[in-house]
Amino acid sequence: MNIVCLDLEGVLVPEIWIAFSKASGIPELTRTTRDEPDYNKLMNWRIGILHEHGLGLNEIRATIEKVDPMPGAKEFLDKLRAETQVLILSDTFTQFATPLMKKLGWPTIFCNTLEVAPDGTVTGFKMRCEKSKLSTVRALQSVGFETIAAGDSYNDLGMIQASKAGFLFRSTEQIKKDHPELPAFEEYDELFDAIMKVL
Fold it and tell me: Is CATH 3.40.50.1000 the classification given to domain 2-14+70-111+128-198?
């Protein structure tokens, strides 16, 4: 049995931190996993910036409520889910994901959790497991699934390379250059067709 594992931000929805950077006027927050391969380092740095500016979960959520899926993302997901099982694997947080999952028609997502004080201050984060995307793909394979994966960032490469088929979607020029062996697509129809060929 096949299962398709998709990244969330940059693939189905815009990058949350970039949207929040624009809303808050803090340009440093545009840094994402496309720029920084070490997710723990990136998140600790982001939390430091939030503290510096007195911002927390409430302000981020207010931005997320205004974020819509990328044009065509829900239709792509609906079409794909009619053909096979789909699982979204993301390094985002449950506190961020809910409004986005509603707009995408409630697909299944595995993600992480923020640690938040009663006043909304983000105090830390709890990763679901080490190398969560790669670990999840390996776990799925261990119980009889064949995985097909697509993503856009450094933290997606593990699950893409470990799958029977893997694709880059709307990735950076640097990642595409570093991994010429991975088919890279810009449009949902192209990605859908590539997935259908290996199902």
Answer: yes
